[in-house]
Write a structure and sequence with these properties.
The protein is an alpha/beta fold. The chain has 13 helices and 25 strands. The protein folds into three domains: about 110 residues, no CATH class; about 325 residues, 3-Layer(aba) Sandwich (Rossmann fold); about 80 residues, Immunoglobulin-like (Sandwich).
Length: about 575
Amino acid sequence: MRQIVSLLVLAITVLAGSIDPNLAVIMASNTDTDLIPVFILAQGQVNQNWVYVSTLGMHREERQQFAVSAMKEIADVGQSDIINYLNTFNSISVGNIQSLWLANAVYCEVTRSVIRSIALRSDVVLVESACDPDGGLIEPVEVRTPNPEERGKGLAWGVAKINADDVWSMGYEGQGIIVAVIDTGVDYEHLDLCDNMWSDTPAGYEYGWDFFNNDSDPMDDYGHGTHCAGSIAGDGSGGTQTGVAPSAQIMALRVNYYGGGEYTWIQAMEFGAEHGAAVLSMSLGTDHGNTTLRTAEENLLTAGVYHSVAASNDGPGAGTIGSSGDSPPPWFHPDQSYHGGQSAVVTVGATDNNDVIASFSSRGPVTWWNDYNDTYPLIDPDISGPGVDIVSTKWTGDSGSGFYTTMSGTSMATPHLAGVAALLLSVNPNLTVSQLDNIIETTSVDLGVSGKDNSYGAGRVDAYQAMSLALTQTGIDNGSSGTNTFTISAISPNPSNGFASFSIYTSVSGLADVSVFDVSGRRVANINSSDIETGANAFNWQIPAEMGSGVYFVRASIHGNVVSSRMTVLR
């Protein structure tokens, strides 16, 4: 049975009662009866080092599922009391409650008084706005019918430019790799895409999911998502080869791509991670520095899911890259002067067929986050790819004839990178997200000023050079070790005051003793003395008031195996 001693694992230390300043401004402009969309970030995040240790010897897919299960466990426990509390209010005060396990956050629409009361809870880290009216789809700067020259090419220029066809000639086309397209949906009936659509028949899923309408039909209704999908895996059946990885599977995840739809973006990330997508491609953005989005991206890195994200189309002004594109990358280029937090996001700028940065392509540096500020800015984008006059698949529900349409934007560059990641994983399926980013950045064609810069990033992606390096990499451990494993994560927050949050993983179930000892070895408290299940077990222990300041050790034992984690209590 699940150990609900109030479980969670905390990686962020923020005092209870924290209301984001942007939300405070929004609250001031609303009435007492207005429902305001918010994210409630709960206490507890999965510990990346603990996941790494607990999954040594697993395949990439096994590690991904382990991390997903651990995050769900943490969210189930960390959000339970919060959701129960929200449900005590009537529909006039609280509506549309959605649990988001990837960020351990709750989305809901609530009044100002509810925001104030929920922020005071000790199991809440932060309450922030979940609605950017200007956020959503990164619209192409141009959409048009392909000209005669473009229609006459059997291979789209962007695919040829990054040498993807040279990778195909070696037998690698992205086979076996699922790429989730988080967008306006995908035309799964398109001639170039219909044979490459993902499905999970036993689970009842076909093609993906529509998080906007909350149904199983992710058909495109706009065209943007179909165009992006075609640059990933369009197989050329209609006459033009548009896909970088023509044997990859496309998982269509339709979201709310209008303003205020960020929670559906996270739901789509969750679906992709849970159902085996190794790569996500997303051409969406918001400009209000969303902590919940960044947390989700950090946890995607822990799950081992690569996330290609568009830089936006706001031109050369510094700091024009929105969230999630403003999240830090999974690997730090040597030119990055300060190493703060990391995430699964690799941000993509757009180049033309002459390898010149597009005038519309957004530029860094990013200075929004505390770990990447004016003193220590984040270089962004991370990489560039073909994004001007890109011919790709056309939504057949659109007016006019033909299988293809031409678009320009960083949205078009993003799926090129996602396709390259799929190619590399078909070359070496156990590459980590950090290794993928390292390989792609270090083998890119350096453009602009030497090194990584805030226009081109590390340079324009080169699939063949990246593949050549990927063939030499070991990747993560292959195959299950078959040994019993028992691990405990770091205590969080540390120093602790009210709660001590941590997770325990065991490969065998049984009676577990989880206790607290002081530095003299004296047992001062018991947290658990009952059976725990195989897998991740999360704990959020309320520290007794009588425990004074000092250094303690949380020690767990099962079947004679003992693990411990140090904890400092400050009163």
